[in-house]
Amino acid sequence: MTLHARTCTAFLALASAGIFALPAAAEEMKFMAELTGAAQVPPVETEATGLADVTVDTEAMTVTWTLMHQGLSGEPVAAHFHGPASLEETAPPVVDMGEGAYGATVDVEEAEDTEGAEAEGTDEAVAEDILEGSAELTEEQLAQLQAGLWYINIHTEENPDGEIRGQVVEGEADMEGMMEEAAGETVQDAAAGEASEGGAAGELVVDIAAGEGIFQESCRNCHGPRAQGMASFPKLAGHDAEYLLERLQQYHAGEKVGPGSALMIPVAQDLSEEDMANVAAYIASTFE
Questions:
Q1: Which pLDDT tens digit goes with each residue over 40-91?
Q2: I want to staple 31 with a disulfide (CB 3.0 to 4.6 A). Which of 54, 64, 187, 194 is the partner?
Q3: Does 153 map to a domain?
Q4: Does 166 share its domain with 194?
């Protein structure tokens, strides 16, 4: 037997013994929920909507979520996974998605110093209309989730039992589409406000993809790839589209606003009103 043959035979023997067995890959399962007032039990009259993207890691036994909403009657006061329950039933909370302080910013590193930050199941709450977090799952809870017996509720002061609800089902949520829709409405509101004050009339329809192109070409090098600010160039992340559009319009008009005006005025003057609306919407909807 040749050396090569002996080596292959030895390798196959070790593999069959399990010494070189590859670890099993973690399985990720995707779920989503569309939240409306009509799904509440009993139904609630509201224009609010929500969308949740939910991922389950079956090896780590964790559930991770991103929850967005718009149009609520007031500030949300809490958000939960509830279960087990069918579409027509109600059930108690099983995971607190927002620490009872929905919308607050809580850094994981500072959790021990934050009142109520040790609530089970929350890693971090982010900007006012988006909530992100994760929690551990039991085998029983995973089985309920897979069976479609969990739902998500967002609670407000006006509707403490829940203003919008959505059953968690298998599938992927179009979070980007909802972000674009929300950003478009923000810019349209800004345009309407300007028109009511005698400014330029009309409704702006934004193009997020076009806004990204403008950001990469005209903003990224100075303000950073995540709009986080660099050197003397200010942070753009965290500002809403209305604020960013207004500032660009000021520069476009030749107004001196801050120490960077000499650099920003020619940049803004190269942009059309549509360009400014697009890039403002892109930054506001992409970077926190």
A1: 999 999 999 999 999 999 999 999 998 888 889 888 888 999 999 999 999 9
A2: 54
A3: yes
A4: no
